[in-house]
Specification:
It contains three helices and nine strands, in the order E-H-E-E-H-E-E-H-E-E-E-E. The chain is of the alpha+beta class and 176 residues long. The chain has one domain: Cyclic phosphodiesterase (Cyclic Phosphodiesterase, Chain: A). The relative contact order is 0.25.
């Protein structure tokens, strides 16, 4: 379950990735930057469903569509999820209550156990192996990245695991 992002935000992210890569030439080949087609905000972690199950999921999600549009405000780019042992580069910001509500409604509709920790608004833009981090010359990453993203729909995504990472395909989109 994910929120797709606008072309404008995708372009801003791609520009940031290119600039950061030029500042850290030693990371070439070590950071796998996510392309525009893979950028999204995850609201429920992946799970396996067969074709029949996907049909049931779509019906359940149709029942919860129809909420209010809302905005997500991204504020910075940092290493994550643990700054001491990072493996991601992500955008983050304050989690709007509407996003937490949507995540909870999706979890209830799909009978997925909600995580006990608070939901963190984040959008992964790069992945790397934790053991490669020691070679990075920038160890503390906390750069401003201000962007307001209008959220009008959510999507059921399918992950296709490929040699260069996951590729995502929308199986259904649901208006808020």
């Amino acid at each position: 379950m994910a929120l797709n992002i606008s072309k404008e935000l995708q372009d801003k992210i791609l520009n940031w990735q290119a600039a950061f890569g030029r500042r850290l030439p030693e990371t070439t080949g070590k950071i796998r930057w996510l392309g525009s087609e893979s950028l999204h905000i995850t609201i429920a972690p992946p799970w396996y469903e067969d074709d029949e199950g996907i049909g049931k999921v779509k019906k359940a999600l149709n029942l919860i569509s129809g909420g209010k549009n809302f905005d997500c405000f991204f504020e910075s780019v940092s290493y994550g999820p643990d700054p001491r042992w990072p493996r991601l580069i992500w955008l983050s910001g304050k989690t709007p209550p509407e996003l937490t509500d949507l995540r909870n409604r999706v979890a209830r509709a799909l009978k997925i156990k909600s995580e006990s920790r608070p939901f963190l608004l984040h959008l992964t833009i790069g992945r790397f192996h934790s053991e490669d981090f020691s070679s990075f010359s920038i160890k503390n990453l906390n750069e401003p990245f201000e962007f307001k993203e209008a959220i009008k729909e959510f999507a059921l995504m399918e992950s296709h695991l490929e040699r260069n990472g996951a590729r995502y395909e929308a199986l259904g989109k649901f208006r808020l």
